Amino acid sequence: MDDSFHEMIVKARITSNDRLKMAGLVLLGLVLLFLVILFGGYLGSLSVLVLAALGYGLFYLLRGFAREYEYTITNGDLDIDLIIAQRKRRRVFSGLARTFDSMEPMEKQPAASAQTEKAGTVIDCRSSQSHGVDYKIRTDYNGKPVIVLFSPDEKIVNQLKKYNPGRIRLG
């Protein structure tokens, strides 16, 4: 059997919750900046060091919102990793295509499947750029039912379909 490998990196969606957290961090940074300037006379030359630490801390925390997802398919094994600020990597999902209950485009869901959908955790790994069709995978992950939302390219979808053609629908 031929070995197949393909990977794709997509920028993660920034949710309204993320925007709220970023605004809160900036607001907190401004309040702390005001306090350091206000009480800078008590700190003396240490206030410059405190301002530099405040600026670096704010930069470090805001950079944590720069997230990407890496979709890797190797011989029917789909791995989705979260990359945070290009410095940390965390596995979000891993599964074999032949064990998927179903995989279908999100825009073409039959009404009957919405009623019979089993409850599970939703793992949203979609891209912020709309480059194609988003897909929904229903499967078990770590013994629990999950629904994985992701934005693969055509090559990843075709490779997954090779390993489970009966349960994977193309968009």
Compact overview of the structure:
This protein is of the alpha+beta class. It has helices at residues 16-38, 40-43, 46-63, 111-116, 154-163; strands at 5-11, 67-74, 77-84, 88-96, 102-105, 121-125, 135-141, 144-150. The chain contains five helices and eight strands; from the N terminus they run βαααββββαβββα.
Supply the key terms.
alpha+beta; four-stranded antiparallel β-sheet; 36% helix; elongated
Would you write up a description of this structure?
With 171 residues, the chain is an alpha+beta fold. Helices cover 36% and strands 32% of the residues. The protein is built from five helices and eight strands; from the N terminus they run E-H-H-H-E-E-E-E-H-E-E-E-H. It has helices spanning 16-38, 40-43, 46-63, 111-116, 154-163, and strands at residues 5-11, 67-74, 77-84, 88-96, 102-105, 121-125, 135-141, 144-150. A hairpin with a 2-residue loop joins strand 7 and strand 8. The longest helix is centred in the N-terminal third of the chain and has 23 residues, at 16-38. The two termini are 27 Å apart.
The overall strand count is 8
User: Whole-number average pLDDT?
Assistant: 86
Note poorly predicted spans: 110-116
Based on Cα principal axes, name the global outline.
elongated
Q: Helical element count?
A: 5
Gyration radius, to the nearest Å? Answer: 22 Å
Largest sheet: 4 strands, antiparallel
What order do the helices and strands follow? EHHHEEEEHEEEH
How much of the sequence is in beta strands?
25-35%
Ends distance: 27 Å
Q: What class, by secondary structure content?
A: alpha+beta
Percent range of helical residues:
25-40%
Please state how the strands of the largest beta sheet are arranged side by side. Answer: 1-2-3-4
